[in-house]
Amino acid sequence: MTIICAVIHHRNDMIPGEMSSSEVLQISVVADKYACQVALKHATHHWLDHRNVLGLEKLMELMTAAYLLDQAHALSAITYTIMMEHAGSYLSFAQDQIDFGVPWESFCKQ
What we know:
Largest sheet: none
Low-confidence stretches: none
Distance between the termini: 33 Å
Helix content: 40-55%
Number of helices: 5
Radius of gyration: 14 Å
Order of helices and strands: HHHHH
Mean pLDDT: 84
């Protein structure tokens, strides 16, 4: 919440230069809860840069964050990277829960 307030109040000195994918995901959950995605749009563009991210789990966290932040371009780019760079099966991730406790089934219509 502190980082969101810092972005909204233009306190760039309080915003960390680099954040992990799990930190970006935590911020996106709060931003979604309080519907402040638009206020964070320019900051999240930088946070969702996935070019140097290694590992499927981290990419999946960024993909979820992009979805929650309504960043369609980032969501598309991250999803494409996941599809192209992951050689194994995705079945092991089918029942995993995202760090904030939301099961994958909640993102899909049943």
